[in-house]
Design goal:
Blueprint lengths: L4 H11 L5 H18 L7 H7 L17 H10 L15
């Protein structure tokens, strides 16, 4: 458990190397392989997972595959152990 500002700073500094271009590229490659193998039985969820591998913010309305139950697809991904950052209010500029 992180209890002080110093502990938080140390924790965040430890994460920093994971955000290099090469580590991000390795992550994307590994999870594309994961998606191809492990998500075959989740044919409705897989396109959502693959879209999220852009590591960019995605709009449910504009970026994800057309699906009336997109929230369930996101829940499937969370149930696989992934954490997603969300922005419930975000203005799109197109």
């Amino acid at each position: 458990m992180i209890e002080t500002e110093q502990e938080l700073a140390g924790y965040l500094e430890g994460l920093y190397p994971n955000f290099s271009k090469s580590r991000i590229a390795d992550f994307i490659k590994a999870y594309k392989e994961y998606s191809a193998k492990e998500l075959l039985s989740k044919e409705v969820t897989k396109p959502f997972f693959d879209k999220l591998l852009s590591l960019k913010w995605n709009s449910v309305k504009h970026d994800f595959p057309a699906n009336p139950n997109w929230a369930r697809r996101i829940q499937d991904i969370k149930e696989l152990g992934f954490t997603l950052a969300t922005a419930t209010i975000r203005q799109l500029i197109h």
